[in-house]
Amino acid sequence: MINFNIPPYVGGEKEYIAQAIEQRKLCGDGDFTKRCNAWLEQNTGTSKALLTTSCTHALEMAALLCDIKPGDEVILPSYTFVSTANAFVLRGATVVFVDIHPSTMNIDERLIEAAITERTRVIAPVHYAGVSCEMDAVMDIASRHNLMVVEDAAQAITSTYHGRPLGTIGDFGCLSFHETKNISMGEGGALLVRDPAMAERAEIIREKGTNRSKFFRGEIDKYTWVDEGSSYLPSELNAAYLLAQLEQADKIQASRMAAWNRYYEQLAPLAEKGRIELPFVPEGCTHNAHMFYIKTRDLAERTKLMATLKAEGISTVFHYIPLHSSPAGRAMGRFCGEDRYTTRESERLLRLPMWYGISQEQVDTVCTAIAQFYR
User: Which of 62, 102, 126, 200 could make an S-S bridge to 172, C-beta 3.0–4.6 Å?
Assistant: First the structure.
């Protein structure tokens, strides 16, 4: 059996978790959380990084920091996870979906401006598969229309756009450390804050709306409720697990990139014959090998291929059902313009097994099975 995903484990996690237990500080914002935040700040160059309980919660914090109110509108792709939309819907906003580039599955920046109304407050680009959206264009539109940008960089840790780490280009960036991601803490995420002036409020929102963080730093003699917020702090046990992986990020990335390149090389002949399509990485973008996917001719072919691979012990999955076609998406959002690619491309995409430590032999087995299917 070749699993679709195996959560990463590098070997130092148990030692760090034991240290966290010995320190008798488990509730969050202890030594391990601070070391994770510092690693993220040093390796992304962001002004402030705050570990959270999930990328979903990082997105919710970003929506609070953007002061989203009922009646506001947020522009995003329909081809994304529900959390991208939910973060703003929970604040009363209407989500406005636009179509994607079929080459990258990312939001088509050329369609954003047509979706802007007097109620628009935020653009939320999603960096699918760790490959960047056209952020220069997105930021230019946001600047001209006085909009904020929240990057959903859940899949994009260590990826860059023209040398800039994803999640640091917009006003806020949201990372995921779910067990399916390159670097994991089981469940978890992080909020990246570009503007230092927003850092204090981000801390307050993360600490249930209190200035508790300032109290623990000795900056005030007592803490109190000063803003809206919630409990977004992960446990020190989760942070300890994560730190072991952050310190081995280069090793994890090397393993995944080797597998990604092997897939590409082995499947290139099928792509050259027009039987499948392979991922596309635009010039100026570096990706993190978060996933390897292929595109089949259509939904029927994908269904047959998945069944064939499953019969051979190979687990593959498709990805998002476009949000605008879901019951909640129809009720709380709208699609602007024509759905030329979102639905069609989502029905063709198939994700192949990918994890830290997947062997060359396992990759070759998957590729051989795909080649036999098309033969």
Answer: 62
Q: What is the CATH number of domain 13-246?
A: 3.40.640.10
- State the CATH class of domain 249-374: alpha beta
Q: How far apart (Å, rounded) are the C-alpha atoms in residues 363 and 340?
A: 33
Phi first, then psi, for residue 252 (nearest 5°) are -65, -45
Every domain of the chain with CATH number 3.90.1150.10 lies at 249-374
Strand locations in the chain (E): 48-52, 73-77, 94-98, 120-123, 148-152, 160-161, 164-165, 172-176, 189-193, 285-286, 293-295, 333-335, 349-351
Given a contact cutoff of 8 angstroms between Cβ atoms, the answer to whether 62 and 190 are in contact is: no
Q: Is-contact 39 243, C-beta < 8 A?
A: yes
Q: Mean pLDDT in the chain?
A: 97
CA dist 236 and 36 (Å) reads: 10
Each residue of 137-164: pLDDT tens digit?
A: 999 999 999 999 999 999 999 999 999 9
The residue length of the chain stands at: 375
Instruction: Look at residues 193, 209, 263, 250 and name the one whose alpha carbon lies nearest to residue 50.
Output: 193
